[in-house]
Specification:
- The complex is a heterodimer of chains A (155) and B (285).
- The longest helix of chain A has 23 residues.
- Chain A is 70% helix and 0% strand.
- In chain A, α6 packs across α8.
- Chain A is mainly α and 155 residues long.
- Chain A is globular, with a radius of gyration of 16 Å.
- Chain B contains ten helices and ten strands.
- In chain B, the strands form two sheets. A six-stranded antiparallel β-sheet of chain B has the order 3-2-1-4-5-6. A four-stranded mixed β-sheet of chain B has the order 7-8-9-10, with helices on one face.
- In chain B, a hairpin with a 2-residue loop joins β4 and β5.
- Classes of the chains: A mainly alpha (155), B alpha+beta (285).
- At the A-B interface, α1, α2, α3, α6 and α8 of A face α1 and α2 of B.
Chain lengths: 155, 285
């Protein structure tokens, strides 16, 4: 991509929330997701020539954010005391559980596929490419995640 | 798509994208710090980048001359040009070389290995064998080019290959700078999972030295010597980058170890080494 600085800035600013949500789905930690987004911006800049088609910028940036988030997990980010002591909030009796609350309770691998599939609208094949697993694995994680969500949302 | 599936899509669609309030500031900060915008590079680095541009030309000449003598391994050079653009060029037996984008590096190596089946040129270099490594690489640069150019963002990468493809990749920087050997098994993952350019970033005008290595099963070992340079401001930032890059190299499947030597004292490998490395980096902050 022959994107100049302004074009790069535009797509990064536009898709930062998507990058963040994808990163959060992988890390499960807001602080780590923020770190991942920051790192992803830098990495995207370095590799911007690999973006051939501007229309695929969202998928490209999301994939980089996912990779950075996974790297965050692998390097074993230090967790603050606050995060360590924070327990997932119990569902309130008189409140309908929102999807994002339910998704937050899923296992990390299922959380990622659900976020990329339902929120970001990527195909199972695209998700497979992002996560480095086979499309079959994505489908199987989706299926299991759906069952988990059904239990969480519908009891 | 069943009813529940539709419900999930609807819920997702109607939910606001939750983002932390300071995400934009974080993105702004990252954008402002992009290398090509001049941030993060001190005067020394900029001068060195200029020197590197010249060094690349010199290196190309040297390689072409040497390869006429029957050079058998594939070489790849990476350089960071003054404008921040990163290019690589490779040379093979016969002196052919050309620039390739970094993104095409991986494919280029495979193609070279396929088109130029050669004897296994894998060879280990240890300690004082540096001159032998240079000889095999076929690249000799003037001392000042090394000092000014290769000490910073540029790196030298030699690929040993046989008829089955690359067997080892060897990276180095400066005459006694970082060198790291990675087996071909780890090659693909390294190329896809690690930003090598970033991995080299940590040597940017810090006094980061690496010496010995020994090849482990499928992996590399790395000895890192950390020493702050004189009058080096911003070392903490680059030290943090060092930590980041080293950590980034520790991906699944890379059972390599880092051996840290501080002030001449060897630290054990493994967790203790990392712990020490972190402590040293903290001290730089």
């Amino acid at each position: 991509m022959k994107a100049d600085s302004a074009e790069f800035e535009r797509i990064v600013t536009e898709y930062a929330p998507n990058m963040y949500r994808a990163a959060l789905s992988v890390t499960g930690s807001e602080a780590a997701a923020e770190d991942a987004v920051g790192e992803a911006v830098l990495r995207a800049w370095r590799k911007k020539s690999s973006l051939r088609d501007i229309s695929s910028a969202r998928a490209w940036l999301t994939k980089i954010a996912v990779n950075c988030a996974r790297a965050q997990l692998k390097r074993g980010r230090e967790i603050s005391l606050e995060e360590l002591s924070a327990e997932p909030a119990a569902p309130e009796q008189d409140r309908t559980l929102e999807l994002r609350d339910a998704v937050a309770r899923l296992a990390p691998d299922r959380r990622a596929v659900v976020t990329l599939y339902y929120y970001e609208g990527f195909s199972t094949r695209e998700i497979a490419g992002m996560l480095g697993v086979s499309p079959g694995t994505v489908k199987s994680r989706l299926w299991r995640a759906r069952e988990d969500l059904r239990t969480l949302l519908e009891g | 798509m069943d009813e529940f599936d539709k419900k999930l899509f609807d819920m997702a669609k109607n939910e606001d994208i939750y983002t932390p309030t300071d995400l934009n500031a974080r993105v702004r900060e990252a954008l402002d710090g992009l290398p090509a915008r001049g941030a993060g590079l001190g005067r020394t680095a900029r001068v060195a980048l200029c020197a590197l541009a010249a060094a690349t030309v010199l290196a190309g000449t040297a390689l072409a001359a040497y390869s006429a003598g029957g050079f058998k391994s594939v070489e790849l050079w990476r350089g960071k040009a003054v404008d921040g653009d990163t290019r690589s060029w490779y040379g093979v037996k016969g002196g052919d070389y050309r620039y390739i984008p970094v993104e095409e590096l991986s494919d280029a190596v495979r193609k070279i290995a396929r088109d130029n089946p050669v004897a296994d040129t894998t060879r280990d270099f240890k300690g004082k064998d540096w001159s032998a490594a240079q000889e095999l690489s076929g690249v000799t640069l003037p001392a000042n080019a090394f000092l000014d150019g290769l000490e910073i963002g540029a790196s030298h990468l030699t690929v040993s290959a046989n008829k089955n493809g690359p067997t080892h990749l060897r990276f180095w920087q400066g005459t006694d700078g970082l060198w790291l050997t990675v087996s071909a098994d780890a090659y693909t993952e390294l190329m896809s999972g690690v930003d090598i350019h970033a991995a080299y970033g940590y040597a940017e005008d810090t006094e980061l030295r690496a010496g010995e290595y020994k090849t482990e099963k499928g992996l590399s070992a790395l000895t890192v010597r950390l020493k702050p340079g004189e009058g080096d401001d911003g070392l903490g930032e680059r030290a943090a980058e060092t930590e980041r890059c080293l950590a980034e190299l520790m991906v699944d499947g890379f059972k390599y170890h880092i051996k840290v030597e501080v002030d001449g004292v060897n630290i054990k490998t493994g967790d203790e080494a990392l712990e020490t490395l972190h402590r040293v980096l903290d001290a730089f902050e």
